[in-house]
Amino acid sequence: MAEQAVKKENDGKVLRPAREWPDRLKASLFVLFLTAFAAAAIVILKNDLVNKKIIETQNAVLDYIGAKGFALEDIVITGRKRTSLAEINAAIGLQRGDNILKVDVRRLKQKLEMLPWVRDVRVSRSLLPNILQIEIEEKKVLAIWQLNERFYPLDTDGYVIEADYRPDKPILLVVGAGAAENILPFLRMVENISPEYLSRIKVANYISKRRWNIILDDIRTGVTIKLPEENVASAWKKLLKLDAAQGILKRKLTFIDLRLEDKVTVKLRKSKIKQEKPEHNI
């Protein structure tokens, strides 16, 4: 009778004892996690303290050695043409008398390579007579990219050089959105097929981000070559054959249209004496 009284309430429902082992397992895992986390934190803290002590000792030793005659006496810079000394000094942040042993040449190289005209840098220390040597390889300008009436120098890797530039001699003009990213493959194609024609390209206009119009020999009076969107190499070879067989590039033409595979259209330049027929098919 006593057991029945324990198991039943006023409504006659049976009461069952709660299962405690899942909660105990969760609690045990949580305590285990906290213990592991605390142990890891202690290890990391100890390692940080040890590393800090090692760095402090290393700096003290370098300071002591540096005071015995290893002070920076001079910085020799070679290869600099467009990069100013002010930019270099601001990047390296060193001065005569600094401990040459504490100069981080790897970090110094990274900072110098962030300068706009710098392509590559070699930094080395000469402990006797305490000279830091910086050899700079600067970027070379491949072309000027015109976009929305603004002009940007492009390096030989096709990247924009974030610096002011005024060419001191005629240079390739690349025009249009997407031209900077696509000019190198086109120039390589021309160089592989006809390297002697590469220097004759004065303007490369990227039309609607799809195809090229090329001006040869002279920006104002040169002939414009209209190339197709696809099979550009085949169209260029066709131009070379026409030039070899008929001297088409020696004629006074305004443009040569190679966009159609089975037809070549040319337009004669207007004569001062008489006006010739504007277009001919070859």
Structure description:
The chain has 6 helices and 12 strands. With 282 residues, the chain is α/β, with parallel strands linked by helices. It has 2 domains: 74-138, membrane protein fhac (Ubiquitin-like (UB roll), Roll), CATH 3.10.20.310; 141-281, Rossmann fold. A hairpin with a 7-residue loop joins strand 8 (211-216) and strand 9. It is elongated, with a radius of gyration of 37 Å. It starts with a helix and ends with a strand.
Q: What key phrases describe this protein's structure?
A:
single chain; 282 residues; alpha/beta; Ubiquitin-like (UB roll); Rossmann fold; 9-stranded mixed β-sheet; 3-stranded mixed β-sheet; 6 helices; 35% helix; disordered N terminus
Q: What's the overall average pLDDT, rounded?
A: 81
- What is the CATH T-level topology of the largest domain? Rossmann fold
Briefly, what CATH class of the largest domain?
Alpha Beta
**Approximately how much beta-strand content do the residues carry?**
15-25%
H/E order of the elements?
A: HHEHHEEEEEHEEEHEEE
What coarse outline follows from CA principal-axis ratios?
elongated
Number of helices: 6
Named at the architecture level, the CATH assignment of the largest domain is 3-Layer(aba) Sandwich
Summarize the amount of helix as a percent range: 25-40%
End-to-end Cα distance, whole Å, is 117 Å
Biggest sheet record = 9 strands, mixed
Unreliable parts: 1-10
* Number of E-state strands: 12
Helix/strand structural class: alpha/beta
Counting structural domains, the number is 2
CATH superfamily of the largest domain: Cell division protein FtsQ/DivIB
